[in-house]
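debug: dumping io for the single-chain case to check the tokenizer round-trip. Nothing else runs in this session.
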Amino acid sequence: MSTHTRLFVLLLLLGQSAITQNTAEPRQPGNTQGGSTRAVPAGTVLQIRLRQTISSFGSKRDTPVSAMLIAPVEAEGRTVLPLGSKVEGTLRKIRRVGLGLSRETAFLDIAFESITLPNGQMQALKAQVIAVDDARESVDSEGRIHGIRATASFSSVLSGAAVSAASVDPMLLGFALSSSLSIFRIPESEIILSAGAELRVRLKEALPITGAFGTVAPPVIHSEDERIVLTELIRPLPFRTATDKTGTPSDLTSLLYIGSENAIVRAFGAAGWVRSDRLSDRSKYGAMRSVLENQGYREAPMSTLLLNGIAPAFTYSKTLNTFFKRHHLRIYGQPRQYRGLPVWTSTATHDSGIAFSRNARTLIHLIDENIDQERSKIVNDLVLTGCVDGVDYVDRPWIPRDAKNATGDSLITDGRIAVILLNDCGSPARADEPDSAGPRVRTKEAAPLRPFRDTLLTLRNDFSRGNIGYQAYSGVRTVGGMLRRPSAEASHRSIHYGGEEFHIVPGSSAAKIDGAPRDPGQHGPTFHDVAERPSLATILDFSFSGGYSRFGNSRFSTQPITFTLNVPPPIGPIVDPTDIVTDLHNGWGIAPRITLNSWKHVSNEFGFAYNRTSLSITAVSTETEPTYDSFNAQVRQFTYNALIHLRPNGSRFRPYAAVGPAFQLIRTVDSKPHTNSLLKFAVRDLGLIVGAYEFGTKPPLEGGGIFQMGLQYGGGFKVQLSPRFFVRLDFRETLSHQPDFWTASYPTIRAFGAELGDLLTFDVGKLQKHGPLRQQLFSMGVGISF
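debug: decoded output
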């Protein structure tokens, strides 16, 4: 036997030995090999997953922290830190927001101090947190995790602007406040890192490790013949997705799953991935709220990408508590089998930020261009569940190495496809399952604390940032930013807001690919009709109505006043009993309303009604001719109504009955709220409170108004013309006490008589009210739905 033949046989035997060793223990891929010492250099980044929940309000200082390694680390071409290695540390410092009196943000300081390998080897380490993956929290240079400032979100800024604009009227202010609180949520200011949250930590010192470990999972391919068969199965499969409307080439496939549909669902569910919502008006509204509120939306929808004209069978995503960053993938069924099992292909990308496309004029996600990292992420996640029997990689030389997706982001890849053989995944290890030996931590605060803290944080923000000085500074800065011209060399511009980065990117055409078989972007796929009939079900309705305002019993009250002219006999004294009659007359009204369609047949509606009318005062005397005067008057209402619909949400025609409380203000047009202007603009909330108090304590005939509660009831119907627009017809009646215009002015009347001396005296009788006040509004209007 020649020397070359002997060498070939030796290498073949070594290869077969390695395959035998890798397949001997499919559930234990981390067997130690060799005894040499290797060092993981300082600065190496470890990707870890928490095995317990940590929160700034529920955890205590010096609490032990447990995590696991979710990406293997190599040194000198060998795996030295395998999947599943246990990383432990301590929660060194903690700062909670609490009631929000002394601080607006929270922080956590975690120090990781040891790592235990699957073979039991334990090694001290020094590692510092550098990032919380796919989270809104940030990490400073010292490794401390900082929570967000809740009042820095877009929704808080928009709510503040709406409240400021509505501050001219107490009722409108109530409508603006309730609408803002109903439409927008205030994000959580405390830090909550649940079990399964993923962090990146950096080694501060080199880490010596003895031995090395095998691959993350046994191979799928055990011979060259099997590799040829699998390659021939993969070669004709479509590899490039395209947009559903324009056919623009987009993402590349990078994974192939072999297994049943149930195995895929169980495996990804155990790995912490969630199914994405269908792209609809409802999910678009949820995405919009998540961006404005800086809240998470784990089930956020994805744009529709077709593979050879077919929509994905599954769409999965993974994030912690933000819409700005997420892992996501699309899985497509294929009409092929391998070893008698179904075959599925998948794209996978990591959304790394939010962008605004000038061409599409909409918000889009920017992706990490190195899509092979996302491929490895999914392989590692699935292996850790125990649902994988084998992993291999197959070369695809026909795959473009410099493609771009539909929004112009680069796609950098080595072209290989990861082949994952799934088992039935009957008893998976869940990523979000906490360590049974770890401390139990509360994930929700006491019910009264959160609303109270949010209120205090809002007031504190208005005091520190709502004052005239800060607003002037902010305005100058904003205008300066708008006037500043972008650099001609810059490929994009960035803006930072609320701790997040936004990019404004120019549109770009997708790169052309030559020689790629069955590329749907080139060969014009036959698109299948995947669009569903648009649903008429809505989450939020905003409408504006106008119509006829009247009063069921317009006479308010009769105030008897006896005038006595004290002149000597025989002329006097002259006594003149007079009834002063107050009436309200018919007019017009407008009513903006916000409706939350919370349940199938019941909705919550907040409204503001402005009713313009005229108030007349007639003095009827037995001694003199009646005198009459008229004033413009207003009835302003802030209302809450529960709407009980006869037909479910999603019906085109929805009759309903309405009932709820009303808080109303009745005043003449000339009586305006008195507010300290400097106080109002310097400290917005305090100025509004003072102004409303002064207005409410003044007599209504002397510049004040009448505040009173009432009961509103009525009904109407809504016709949903399209998923976005509707018309409505309403009748509402507000039942309340008859307002008292006179009693508060008794001291003024008597004081006026005293100024005249003994010549003219007044005797004020008992006020006579004519039943309850029934204010009615017949209106029709149009609205927008989300």
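debug: round-trip ok. DSSP finds 13 helices and 40 strands in the chain.
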